[in-house]
Amino acid sequence: MRWGVIGTGNMGSILIDAWVSKNVVDEENIWIHNRTLAKAFDIKDRYSKLNVCTTADKVVKNTDIIFICVKPLQVLPLLKQLKPYIHENHCIISITSPVSIEELETVVPCQTGRVIPSITNRAGFGVTLTTFSDKMDETLKAYLIQSLKLFSNPVDIDESITRVSSDIVSCGPAFISYLLQSFIKAAKEYANLEVEKGYKLAEQMIIGFGKLLEEGYYTLETLQEKVTVKGGVTGAGLKVLDEELGDLFLHVLEATHEKYGEDKSGVSQQLPT
Length: 273
Prior knowledge:
- Strands 3-2-1-4-5-6-7-8 form an 8-stranded mixed beta sheet, with helices on both faces.
- It has 11 helices and 8 strands.
- It has helices spanning 10-21, 37-46, 56-62, 72-82, 101-105, 138-149, 162-191, 195-214, 220-227, 233-245, 248-270, and strands spanning 3-6, 30-33, 51-52, 65-68, 91-94, 111-116, 127-132, 153-156.
- It is globular.
- With 273 residues, it is of the alpha/beta class.
């Protein structure tokens, strides 16, 4: 099958990189478009056999599965614009959480799905969150899931937990990165640890951390227990975290869900009346 990407920003380009590096789709079977064409041609510089289209409708005309990788409030207007070129054998995949499968189906006459990626997919790891239309052909669904397994662990989710799941899977790497950078800055301020050295230490720690979980040596809970020696320094640090962390992550989720609600409201206003 031929795959298309409309919108080659951060997530769109990560998906393309993952597909090519993990042999999900041959380069010549990928067709892409971006409003700023230079970004699309930057990707072609990496993958010379890939096809760049000057307009979004050309992606649709040349492909079977089209990933829509634009901002939430751009999805439905874009699909309305492309509707004359979309036929029932196409499959439209959105990567944004505020647009539901039902909302996609009000606009396009074809099979639909939602795949929310993570930056970790670039390395061939991490989760992709999936939701597929009940109307999707089972063979096509199986093909998509098998394709996703080549660069991720696809996990099917209900609409009700879409945002909070995406907070962990998709936003999580940015949140963890921020916390580690804050840790390193504190080490610089308190003990004059060189920032560059702190980054190297943290990067190797997080790689090893992931390997421990991947290989099944520990769970998050048992890993914490194993490192924490009774009366030791780790326990002293955890006590501070327990006392000061408080409702931090509840507030993080409140903020992400508030923005999600704003986007959902905007999408609702774009639906056909």
